[in-house]
Design brief:
By secondary structure, this protein is mainly alpha-helical. 74% of the residues lie in helices and 0% in strands. It has helices at 3-24, 28-48, 52-77, 90-119, 140-149, 152-173.
Length: 176
């Protein structure tokens, strides 16, 4: 087993255990912290796939900004065992179990059919494994080169749009 495979299996186990702990944690703050661990494991997978930009964006946007937002909402709601309604209906639990089973069937069917789709795209045979040791697809340098040469005008237009949105937010939020 190579080092990349060991890291892959470690990150996969970490992601699965953390995702299960998100569901099993009684405290919502602990669930958010376990979800951050899931995002770190997924970012590790992105790095193994040579997609550094996706890894960094995943950490900044999801593990950073969105999880902080979730944490603030949970803390502001200040829910505890007395204020949270308890549903003891067996119909709701049965409906959840049926929906989860249907989702499992769809995921298993998609994974089983993915081998056939990967091999026969356009009549050409493609490899079933991802390129992890070399390749130029996910590098930030290539993204920057394309972004600042081919798409420089839309990039600059979007930057002006974001700047005007920030100025508008400051003007609206400013007190008289």
């Amino acid at each position: 087993m190579s080092l990349v495979e060991i890291i892959f299996w470690f990150l996969s186990g970490l992601a699965l255990i953390s995702a299960i702990m998100v569901l099993l944690s009684k405290n919502p703050v602990h669930s958010v912290l376990w979800l951050i661990a899931v995002f770190f494991a997924i970012s590790g997978h992105y790095i193994l796939l040579n997609a550094q930009f996706l890894a960094i964006v995943n950490l900044i946007v999801y593990a950073g900004a969105i999880m902080v937002l979730f944490l603030f909402v949970i803390m502001l709601m200040n829910q505890n065992a007395e204020t949270e309604p308890r549903s003891k209906s067996t119909w709701i639990k049965l409906a959840g179990a049926i929906a989860g089973g249907c989702l499992l069937i769809v995921v298993v069917a998609a994974v089983r059919d993915s081998e056939n789709l990967i091999q026969n795209i356009g009549g050409k045979a493609y490899a079933k494994t991802a390129v992890t040791t070399h390749g130029e697809i996910g590098l930030i340098e290539n993204l920057g080169r394309v972004l600042f040469t081919q798409y420089v005008v839309p990039f600059e237009i979007s930057s002006v749009l974001f700047l005007s949105a920030m100025v508008g937010a400051v003007v609206i939020g400013k007190k008289d």
